[in-house]
């Protein structure tokens, strides 16, 4: 396995509020992603468990460059760009597979036409999770917020957060929910937000 902490510390000041928040969130997502991935492995679906954990630990690395003061981010880019920014950061150090997880985890993924129709400041290409590992990290991420790291969202709350982005987004999320199921909340840290 790669040393994700060292990679994060290349870009973030260890011990800073932002670094601590990023690590907490990424650990939460990694814990849930591993739970979901193990279910699939138990059902004889091949999943790269080490990669799932690594990718979950790095999926939000691009937030450093965004303007989201509520979560200690004082960059210049819109928050929605954090996945594309994270991809560029990880591509730069040769982690191309991990970089794709960064780019493809926003929302339930973003289709090219959605990006165009909503005039989002993103490249005009599909930013959709494709591999099973990409989908696991994308899905697990929807149960946590960096704004409220003490909470775990229920499936209904996670779905409701995506509802405002349209039927295509909900359809993709529902497909992931059908594939991965509801988390075992009792095995997760945090107060359940229902």
Structural commentary:
With 194 residues, the protein is mainly alpha-helical. It has one domain: Hypothetical protein af1432. 53% of the residues lie in helices and 5% in strands. It has nine helices and four strands; from the N terminus they run H-H-H-E-E-H-H-H-H-E-H-H-E. It has helices spanning 4-11, 17-42, 49-58, 82-92, 96-104, 112-117, 132-141, 155-163, 167-180, and strands at residues 67-68, 73-74, 151-153, 191-193. The radius of gyration is 16 Å and the shape is globular.
Which features would summarize this protein structure in a list?
Hypothetical protein af1432; two-stranded parallel sheet; mainly alpha; 9 helices; two-stranded antiparallel ribbon; 194 residues; globular
SSE topology:
Elements lengths: L3 H8 L5 H26 L6 H10 L8 E2 L4 E2 L7 H11 L3 H9 L7 H6 L14 H10 L9 E3 L1 H9 L3 H14 L10 E3 L1
Parallel strand pairs: 3-4
Antiparallel strand pairs: 1-2
Main beta-sheet annotation: 2 strands, antiparallel
CATH topology: Hypothetical protein af1432
Helix content: 40-55%
From the N-terminal CA to the C-terminal CA, the straight-line distance is 35 Å
Any idea of the CATH class?
A: Mainly Alpha
Outline of this structure?
With 194 residues, the protein is mainly alpha-helical. 53% of the residues lie in helices and 5% in strands. It has one domain: Hypothetical protein af1432, CATH 1.10.3210.
């Amino acid at each position: 396995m790669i040393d994700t902490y060292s990679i994060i510390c290349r870009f973030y000041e260890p011990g800073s509020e932002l670094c601590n928040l990023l690590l907490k969130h990424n650990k939460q997502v990694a814990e849930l992603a591993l739970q979901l991935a193990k279910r699939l492995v138990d059902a004889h679906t091949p999943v790269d468990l080490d990669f799932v954990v690594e990718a979950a630990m790095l999926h939000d690395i691009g937030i450093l460059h965004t303007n989201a003061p509520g979560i200690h981010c004082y960059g210049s880019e819109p928050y929605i760009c954090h996945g594309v920014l994270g991809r560029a950061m990880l591509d730069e150090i040769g982690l191309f597979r991990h970089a794709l997880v960064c780019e493809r985890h926003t929302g339930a993924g973003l289709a090219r036409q959605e990006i165009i129709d909503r005039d989002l400041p993103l490249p005009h290409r599909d930013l959709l999770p494709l591999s099973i590992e990409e989908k696991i990290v994308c899905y697990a991420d929807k149960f946590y917020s960096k704004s409220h790291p003490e909470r775990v969202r229920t499936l209904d709350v996670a779905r409701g957060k995506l509802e405002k982005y349209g039927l295509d987004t909900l359809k993709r999320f529902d497909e992931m929910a059908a594939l991965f199921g509801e988390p075992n909340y009792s095995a997760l840290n945090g107060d359940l937000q229902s």
